[in-house]
Amino acid sequence: MFLKTEQFEYNGVSVTLSELSALQRFDYIKFVSDAEQQETTKHDVVHINQRYLETASLLVAMSLWHSHSLKGTLASPETEMQQIRREVMLGWPADALNQATNRVLYLSGMLDNRHDADPE
């Protein structure tokens, strides 16, 4: 509808990423905030990577949901996004997930893309 979209290609496969809706943005920020509050003193590399993959897969699934074939087919949007998230976790390499995460954050106005601008 009003959401910005962008084609994302990785290793010859293309998907449509969408910016997050206002409700999705709220839910994503709440998820990240809740996760930070539950954090213990674990700061090892494995734990940090696990948290990043959990957060990134949720963000990308929320974005993909807008144009995904599952949209409108299950009991709720949340159920659909969890299924898409599972697909992302099972089928996407970490590098693709990282790149898509950055694009969704940028599309959603949650990441400044100044590194693409000409230096002053």
Topology:
Blueprint: E1 5-10, E2 13-18, H1 22-38, H2 45-65, H3 77-91, H4 94-107
Antiparallel strand pairs: 1-2
Proportion of residues in helical segments: 55-70%
What kind of assembly state do the chains in view correspond to? single chain
Mean pLDDT: 89
Rg calc: 15 Å
Shape: globular
What is the helix tally?
Answer: 4
- The biggest beta sheet, please? 2 strands, antiparallel
Unreliably modeled segments: none
How far do the termini sit from each other?
36 Å
Counted up, domains total 1
Percent of sequence in beta strands: 5-15%
The count of strands amounts to 2
The H/E string reads EEHHHH
Spatial strand sequence of the major β-sheet: 1-2
Backbone structural class: mainly alpha
Organism: Escherichia coli EC1870
Protein name: Phage minor tail protein G
Describe the overall structure.
With 120 residues, the protein is mainly alpha-helical. The chain is built from 4 helices and 2 strands, in the order E-E-H-H-H-H. The longest helix is centred in the middle third of the chain and has 21 residues, at 45-65. It starts with a strand and ends in a 13-residue tail after the last helix. It has one domain (21-110). The chain is globular and about 40 Å long. A two-stranded antiparallel sheet has the order 1-2. Pfam families: Phage_TAC_2 (PF06894). Residues 1-112 form the Tail assembly protein G domain. This is Phage minor tail protein G.
